[in-house]
Amino acid sequence: MLLPVATMAQTSPRPLKLVAFGDSLSAGYGLPASAAFPAVLEQALREKGVQVEISNAGVSGDTASGGLERLDWSVPDGTDAVILELGANDALRGIDPAITEKALDAIITRLKARNIAVLLAGIYAPRNLGTEYTSRFDALFPRLAQAHGLVLYPFFLDGIAGDRALNQADLLHPTPEGVRVIVQRILPTVERFLATLPAKS
């Protein structure tokens, strides 16, 4: 039985346990822990009455293949759902999109085998890598979401990419305000995703 998020939160005897599994964008590079994406998203959901705990399993510099290698110990048993945010470093390094897709596919497959739901957060490749590369890279996230029946948030950096006011000096990592914009943008998708989860006892 599927319940609306607010109803599910009220009837569930324990908080939903989520893991933000990603790279520096999840880890909160250059930010205090309280300003990192998982903490800010958890607070936003709690303000809406959703009882949730979001663990930060972001590792700066991680690629999709690196995430696959650490998956089992980064996502503990008892996790209800994962926000999968990997791929930005693959694109920055110009890694073959086929390698990225294969690793993400394996991560998703292994999480689903553990009955852990997955929200896939996509990323767009830097445009200076050329049309062929960016087209191949950008397409892998929608393809994975369709193949696995996942909720997809197409672009994790939507609303802040390239904005000097919302990014740190490297123009790659968000400021605290940038994180708040990310959370504001992704929140409706996260709520829709959580509403698909069965009530936990």
TrEMBL record:
Molecular function terms in GO for this entry? phosphatidylcholine lysophospholipase activity
| InterPro entries tied to this protein | Ester_Hydrolysis_Enzymes, Lipase_GDSL_AS, SGNH_hydro, SGNH_hydro_sf
- SGNH hydrolase-type esterase domain location, by residue? 20-180
Q: Name one Pfam family in it.
A: Lipase_GDSL_2
Q: Which GO terms describe its biological process?
A: lipid metabolic process
**PROSITE patterns associated with the record:** LIPASE_GDSL_SER
**Record protein name field:** Acyl-CoA thioesterase-1
Q: Which source organism?
A: Bosea psychrotolerans
Question: What are the leading ranks of the lineage?
Answer: Bacteria, Pseudomonadati, Pseudomonadota, Alphaproteobacteria, Hyphomicrobiales
